[in-house]
Amino acid sequence: MANEIDKKRFLCYELGLLSLKAALSTRDGDAPVYASGIEFHQRTKEKRVLRGVLEKIEPMYINGDVTENQHVEFIQMTADEVSKALGSSLHNRRFRIGVTQKLINLHLKYLWVPGYIEEPPHCPIDGIIRDKAKITYNWTTNDSIEDYRQAVAELKKLANGRSLSVWELEEFRRRAEE
């Protein structure tokens, strides 16, 4: 019979796949993640680097003691590190802030909901949340940490005292029920 550690490891790995698929699917022909000519079967190094990002997340956030400023710095640092490691494989040699925040925030949400980590500081900001909140932040093209901070500030106003993680979870659920 499988033990709890093996079950958790399996589920975290699979949640990572979902996080990667969602964050790398920008659906914006003018702002793809990868440079032209990089075929799916050629992305072994890229997958390894991005999987490394996900492996850093759970130990960092497990106790819920990452501050909002540390979280934003982690997003910026991750965008810069992935850009440096994979530059020639990336569109305009850059792993953009918007894609980075989506990857990190979505993976944190996936780990938080089943109780593997404490509540994360932010929610993933994607097209669904942007449209629901009526903000202009475009995660697929954004590469400004200040624009990301502004989007977070706008969402906090809408959350009306609720944490962004709880607000987004409730709003997402309501959208699914409409």
Describe this entry's structure for a reader.
The chain has 178 residues and is mainly alpha-helical. It has one domain. It contains seven helices and no strands. Helix 2 runs antiparallel to helix 3 and helix 2 packs across helix 4. The longest helix has 21 residues. The radius of gyration is 16 Å and the shape is globular. It starts with a helix and ends with a helix. The mean pLDDT is 91.
Please estimate the helix content. 55-70%
Number of alpha- plus pi-helical segments: 7
Rg, Cα atoms, Å: 16 Å
Beta-strand residue percentage = under 5%
H and E order? HHHHHHH
What is the subunit arrangement here? Answer: single chain
How many β-strand runs? 0
| Net shape | globular
Q: Ranges with pLDDT <50 over ≥5 residues?
A: none
Pick out its properties.
single chain, mainly alpha, 178 residues
Compact description:
With about 180 residues, the chain is mainly alpha-helical. About 60% of the residues lie in helices and about 0% in strands.
SSE topology:
Layout: H1 4-24, H2 44-61, H3 68-86, H4 97-112, H5 127-133, H6 145-159, H7 164-177
